[in-house]
Amino acid sequence: MSVGASTVSLGALLLVLLPLDPVVGTPALALQGGGIRALASDAGLVAGVARIKHLQHLRQLGQSSDVQADLNSWDLTAVLKQFHMVSSVSGSSWFAAELFFSSSFLDLLAGIASSPSKSAQKFEKGWIGPWLRATGVTEPEFDSWQTLVRLWVKFWLGTGDEDTIFLAQFFLATGLSWNHFVDVLLNSTAGISSDAKMGSLPAFPTHQVWLVDHTLLLPSGGACISEGKLLLPHVRYKAETGTDLPIYLPAAFSIKLGAGLHSVAPVSYMALPEVPIKCLMLVELDALVIGRQQTCAGFNFEGVWLGGSSSKSSSPMFVDATNGSLMNTSGQLPIARTVAASSAFFGSAIDSVLLSEISAQLSADVAVWVGETGFEAAEHIREELQSHVDSQAISQLAQIAFHALLDGGFTDGTGVAQAVAAGSSEVVAVLNSFSSNQPEYVAQLFPGGTVIKPGVPKELFPVFQSPNASTVQASFEHFETLQIAAGSMYLKVLAIGTIDAVTADNAFFGITRGRAIKIQVINICSELSIGLFANFAHYSNLVEEIVLTISDPANQDAVLTKLMPLFDSSFDSRLWGLSLYSFRCLGVEGVQVLAQPAQATMQNNFSDMKQRSDRDRYLSEESHKQNLDILSNLERSEKQVEALRKQERECYGEIAKLQHQVKEQDQRNKMVEAQLNAERLKSTNLVPREEHEALKEELKAARHRCLELEEMQASKEKDYQNIVDAYKLLSGHDSSGIEGRPLTPRPIWMSCRGVLDPESLRTMQQSDFLQDLVMRIMQSSRILMAAYGLQTASQKSTVLPAITRHPFTMPLVPETGSSIDRQKTPQEETKDEHSFPQVGAGMDKSCEGFKDEEKWLPPDMEASTPMALRHPDKVRNQRFSRKKTLDFLERILQLRFREGDKVLSRPFLETMMEVLNQELGEEAFAFGINILASTRRYAAEPEFASFLMLLRGQVGDLAVRDNRTLCAEILRIFRTYFEAGDGSTRVTKEKFFKALREVNRAEAHTLGVGGKGQNAAKAACTLALACEKARRRRVTVAQFLGGYTGEQIRQLQEQEGIEDITVAGAMTREFMTLVDFPQDSTDGINRVDEDGSTPCFATSPTVSELITPSEPVSMAAAEELLSKVVAAAPTFRGILLMGTWPSGTTRDFYMEAAKAKANDAVVLLDAAKPVQDVLDILEAGNVDIYKVNAMEICNLMGYGCKEGEASEEQIREVAAKALLRFSAVKHLAITDGAKASFLFSRESRQGTRCTRYDLPAVPCVNPIGAGDTVAGVLMASLCFGVANDVEEAMLFGLAAGSAKVKSEGEGGKLDFETMMGLKAAITATRATSQ
Question: What is the residue range of the signal peptide feature (predicted)?
């Protein structure tokens, strides 16, 4: 900030900065912020000083101290004549505005000064009461916000003082808009309207300069302008610099009181930083943010829209971030908006993603917005963004340099720095501290001071180079303190003292070093409690206690010699002292004798002064009336201009609306035109009527020919049946029930598909029998194979992924995927090419000789028949072939898969009948019955058996689809892993059954403890025993144990040194891990690593688990264990929540355990299911580290992903979204098997740090429990002090997990030396903050 005359040219704009009037030896008054407490403290001080000054005037007139003449507002304003400048912050800006522009407020203070004993009553009646009535807030409504306010203020401002909580509570209860809050306050307590201007005539003649201190927000992470609701995008503005520039910069509105509406600012708005800054207007839709990179000096506002179009100002913005608008129109600025900006202490919420979302949901407007066109236009644009966001609106934001203003307390809450920056060499600082005489907010201006207010940038300080903060602290301790008036409840200290300081170079305030500054401090310390509406009365009591303390005779010496000279340099304390001494020692008569000459002289002087005063007052009143007339005319003209401008804006808005409607109508016209073109094209492709009639005649002739052929067929069938009957009489051979040709004495040998040896020839009877036999054997053998671990092996190995995908599917589908009972002639193959069989067609030629009764399907009301296909009458048997039946069912199956989950959730038969009804109409029912009959007829084949179960609703579509490739996969596995013995690769039934009868014997057996929590505990104990720093640390497992297995677990844990918190429950389940180590394909011998320590295999071993079922935990046992965990949790440094909670418990178990942690403890969660429960646990805010693998975090955040398929870009995107949603999670650890792992750490509210870990390649021997090992060692190294931070702890954990993979042992068991070797081989790369 600078003072002096200067000219800055910005295109066509010429801005002139007027110099301050040179005032030699007069100090500036700095009023510290502090809400209503600051206003009450300032009011009590001014009223008390005015009372003493008035009493001095009475003594100069010769009146006794007992004479009490009422003060008027002119007497009160004499207190401020000492100061050429007033610098106010926050609540003190409310006080200054009402003091300068409200005659009613001056009268209130005069009344308080006249009657100190009635000060509380007067302040309650004249200020508190009108405010409460104007807000209309009832007691229940006010009290209902109390809990929300405490949480809100705690997040924004730390714990927050009581007055901040009080103001926040009242703000939420009175409209959720800071501008509205200040408008109501000023209008109800001082009669200052919302459109009153800074250049208006003050309530008393004065030419002082008023600095309204506030803060300019330049957010590096993006401040919320409009938080979108109902799928509307978020609008933010973001400042980017090439250096570390604070997000808060000090600024001040300034006005020379009484200079008029067209006056300009006498003091620079802010000190411009000497670094390039760019401000971007950003539009966000979910996680999508689009912006362009361009840097220039000063302030450059650029608008960015999702469509790619942008709009930016033609030149950078200097002087006041609005191209000089705020300084050039200082007299036109609304008083209420400048004061609201100075006191907007909630405004920092827009720089928080979470709190801006809360503000949007509450429809709260916590900041003050301004632009080149002023406050009102900026507010109007922001209101429009709540319902409509487009590129034009964003461009308009950039053009007017739209940005936010906050409470001056975010840069300097005392007002001292701004007064010094404006040129003052002596400052009277009025502080309002909490409870005790501490220099907290003053000390931060000096070297070594601590920034007290949360969020205030440390880079802004110091302002002075000497003395240091400790010296300032000592000076405060030696300040002279007044004796507090008897009966005071809230006023605790009133201290007066002086600090001599020397300025330092400070570019942010525009202060140069070497200036000598005298700071006169008045510290008013009070303590106010929180309750209901009675709290407002406490502020009234504070005003009275301050006035009574200043007026107390016990404080006479301090008030006359220390306090009064600060407000009146001509104050003569000797006359005051002489009068009192004379009254005490000489009596009244003696004093009168001594004072008679002086009294006569004073009376003469008084008469002359009275005459001059009356004349000056008359002239002043006349001038004041003329000024009021001029002002009223100007205001009337301004209102007319503003009305015209408003009409112009409305016209522009209406034009934009009509243009939008025209665009929509054009789009509709284009759509209708496209439809008409489509219809025209369709009509041109129609068949001519003559051609249509010819085709109808051809169809009629074809049908007639078909009838003739059917009659010929019936005749042939009759002849054929007669021949068959004759053959039966002659040969005595009955061919009924045989599908082969009956006229040959021996059956024809055919290649039979569906048996495991398709090259062999079998008769139909033999093939059906063998197929049925093999199916039964395979059903039995499948159970046997599952018992040996194939169920788990299919999930962990690439060998058997398709065998046990669905345990209830029908096994053994032929390798070709379909089953045909006999070879077809070329004519039959041609006939079978039709994809959809028609009613009355598609019959096998083998049915031509059947009897009449076999041409009909008998009535079917069996319970096994689906309800939709039961029929009480016989139905024509259309004898569909295998291919036609299979093709039709396959068509319906593919249709359901194309439609997706919505159709797959419905029964298969329901979909089939809907299709038939659409295509066949009345014949659909008969067609469906024939499909069911054909499926039953060929059900000996696994493929048709699975479709039969599908029609009955016994299995699902996925089971049928997976079943069709199962047989071929089993054959492939047998060919690959079972030795034929004769060197051939062909698998016969004999070899197949022989292989199934083999007994698998284990080479080694190990007994250990499993479970995710137990594995993590074992890994943590391994680290504790091996590291010197971690020794004597304890690891405890909370668990349910029962039966003999539970006793074995307890004994094994004691051997490992693991303590436990155990509650007896049901029998603890067992599980068996089967590890099948393959042999080398050449020599059959396993190899080892180069160091000879770890086995290395040609291919990875096959690992599977067989887990016995477990019983749910009883409610009583769950409650008992939870109570023990909650009681013990505060004694631990870290808590691991591993895996899904036991059956019988709920997510509340984890949530309560995490909530019970100590303040400095760390909670790690390693769980991903159930998804919604895990989301609730993370959103509860008690989890510090979330450890998860890449697939799980993608699925948790709604990104479909399979194991091993997540890309690095996808992982980073999902991690950013997770940290944004789970604001309490500090670290997100993501593993991805052998691929790179990541650690995302929350550095600050603006960004995260990403560390990538590249793992060395290691042989995978037994991967079970590796993830648990990572979690256990990560937490142990962090809590035991082995790792310096989470990044190094993650390195320890990954090394431990890799060492576990190389070990054959149970989960959590690893070799420490191997782990340390792998730790050195892991590469950690830290990415830049985002």
Answer: 1-25
Task: Write the DSSP symbol of residue 790.
Answer: I
Q: Assess contact for 135 and 558: CB atoms under 8 A.
A: no
- For residues 689-712, b (16+ Cβ closer than 10 Å) or e, as one string? eeeeeeeeeeeeeeeeeeeeeeee
Phi-psi category of residue 1024: left, alpha or beta, with phi > 0 → left and psi -120 to 50 → alpha: alpha
What's the residue count for the chain? 1330
733 near 745, Cβ under 8 Å?
A: yes
pLDDT at 279: 60
Is 108 buried (19+), middle (13-18) or exposed (0-12) by CB count in 10 A?
buried
Cα 869 from Cα 932, distance rounded (Å): 8
Give this prediction's pTM.
Answer: 0.47
Provide the edge-to-edge strand list for the sheet that holds 1134-1138.
1134-1138, 1162-1166, 1185-1189, 1227-1231, 1237-1244, 1247-1254, 1323-1326
Separation CA 465–CA 463 (nearest Å): 7
**Range of lowest pLDDT (190-199, 716-725, 1279-1288):** 716-725
Please give the pLDDT value at position 592: 55
Dist CA 970 CA 125 (whole Å): 93
pLDDT of 217 > 80? The answer is: yes
Q: Which of 1300, 1280, 1285, 1281 is nearest to 1185 (CA)?
A: 1285
Residues in contact with 880: Cβ distance below 8 Å, sequence separation at least 6, in sequence order: 837, 842, 843, 888, 930, 931, 934
For residues 405 and 341, the answer to whether their CB atoms sit within 8 Å is yes
Q: List pLDDT tens digits, range 706-734.
A: 988 888 888 888 877 877 777 677 666 55
Phi, psi for residue 422 in degrees, rounded to 5: -80, 0
- Per the structure block, which two tokens stand in for 297? 């000096």
Q: Looking at residue 189, what is its pLDDT? A: 93
Mean pLDDT over residues 1099-1115, rounded?
68
- The span from the CA of 273 to the CA of 299, in Å, is 10
- Which pair of tokens denotes residue 712? 């010929």
Gap between the Cα atoms of 372 and 704, Å rounded:
89
Taking the C-alpha atoms of residue 141 and residue 132, their distance in angstroms, rounded to an integer, is 13
pLDDT of residue 1313: 87
| 500 DSSP β-pair partners | 518
Half-sphere exposure for 620 (CA within 13 Å, toward CB):
12
DSSP letters along 574-630, please? HHHHHHHHHHHHTHHHHHHHHHHHHHHHHHHHHHHHHHHHHHHHHHHHHHHHHHHHH
The packing angle between helices 103-114 and 534-551, to 10°, is: 60
Give the pairing type, strands 1071-1076 and 1059-1064.
unpaired
What are the angstrom distances between the C-alpha of 507 and each of 296, 504, 512, 962?
19, 10, 8, 73
Residues 6+ apart with CB under 8 A from 194: 183, 186, 187, 334, 336
Locus of tokens 């499993």: 1010
Residue 1121, C-beta contacts closer than 8 angstroms, at least 6 positions apart: 1038, 1039, 1040, 1061, 1063
Please state, in angstroms and rounded to a whole number, the distance separating the CA atoms of residues 164 and 33.
11
Residue 214's SS3 state is strand
Cα(41)–Cα(31) distance, rounded to whole angstroms?
Answer: 10
- The band of 494, judged by pLDDT with boundaries at 50, 70 and 90, is very high
Q: Are 261 and 634 in contact (CB under 8 A)?
A: yes
- Residue 1085 amino acid letter: I
Specify the amino acid at residue 961.
Answer: R
Interatomic CA distance for residues 554 and 559, integer angstroms: 10
**What confidence tens digit (pLDDT) does each residue in 73-101 have?**
666 777 888 899 999 999 999 999 999 99
Helix/strand/coil for 526: strand
